[in-house]
Amino acid sequence: xxxxxxxxxxxxxxxxxxxxxxxxxxxxxxxxxxxxxxxxxxxxxxxxxxxxxxxxxxxxxxxxxxxxxxxxxxxxxxxxxxxxxxxxxxxxxxxxxxxxxxxxxxxxxxxxxxxxxxxxxxxxxxxxxxxxxxxxxxxxxxxxxxxxxxxxxxxxxxxxxxxxxxxxxxxxxxxxxxxxxxxxxxxxxxxxxxxxxxxxxxxxxxxxxxxxxxxxxxxxxxxxxxxxxxxxxxxxxxxxxxxxxxxxxxxxxxxxxxxxxxxxxxxxxxxxxxxxxxxxxxxxxxxxxxxxxxxxxxxxxxxxxxxxxxxxxxxxxxxxxxxxxxxxxxxxxxxxxxxxxxxxxxxxxxxxxxxxxxxxxxxxxxxxxxxxxxxxxxxxxxxxxxxxxxxxxxxxxxxxxxxxxxxxxxxx
Length: 412
Fold this sequence. Notes:
By secondary structure, this protein is an alpha+beta fold. 42% of the residues lie in helices and 29% in strands. The chain has helices at 3-22, 26-39, 85-88, 91-97, 116-123, 163-197, 199-206, 230-234, 239-259, 283-310, 345-355, 368-373, 376-379; strands at residues 44-52, 58-66, 72-78, 102-106, 128-135, 148-155, 215-228, 263-268, 271-277, 317-333, 338-343, 364-367, 382-390, 393-402. Helix 1 (3-22) runs antiparallel to helix 2, helix 1 runs parallel beside helix 6 and helix 2 (26-39) packs antiparallel against helix 6 (163-197). It is elongated and about 85 Å long.
């Protein structure tokens, strides 16, 4: 490696370390790395980096930089069995299957081992290809199953990559991988927290709200839902079918809530509790969002039930209660096992309201507090159904209902 190449590698290594400590986003990290290499005269035409993640939908992320284009193209890979020829006939698949950590090929002449994608690279004007698997445990992903980064680089330098070019990239890839690992670990942690306890709760926990008893009072619309007939059905179905059915129903319930700005705080067997925090927002707007989300829930369940009936599968109905009140939001539990949730009298009241849906033959019950705070257009859709006693709660409560089958925003 020449003195100029050594200086380039050292300078870029320092820059990568600084970005890693700063927590720079991976997209910006890769763009900055490639732009600096190219500006320094390094003949880089295209670069690709990919790594695995922990996510219920995605198995990994990929980033592509091209010298001829501004910015970086970002892709997410769905979690599924990949059997397409595009993958099984790729250099990376060959490397993983044959414990090959590095693959170097000239593209301006027939390569020692050809892959279909080489023709695409040649059509782009590439003369050389370098692929590298850098593991987080060993230098090669193949030797350690803790994950890592898969890289590929294209050059249009006459004769392909030189030994000096490869030496520069080899020196920089472990440092770049360390920075990617630091950021991806942070990303995985935030995604997992959001997946398991909700986006807002996850952000609060990751920001330091971790002590038992660390709660705050918030005003929120409470969404409390429970599926009718689940226990009876679960006793007559195969375990795998029960889980698949419950997943379908919970997805139909959660999607409209999240789409309208709600938070799903807890799945409780065959039930779900969500909130629409009011904060600085207009209470009427949050009530409107909650009722519209409920319309979407009911429309989604109607479509799901129709599809299940057509397939000869069992179906379930849903009971929903909407209430508004102050709740304690934060960490509750034992010293070593906490739950980030909402508690308080308003939560208990919402639960008791939901339990009245079946006796009153209603799929939706709405509290007087919700009705009073709702904007006129939303309030006009509520129908009073008298005063009723809620279990273990003194006095009677005025309750309302609404037609949710054909209300605005009912599309699932």
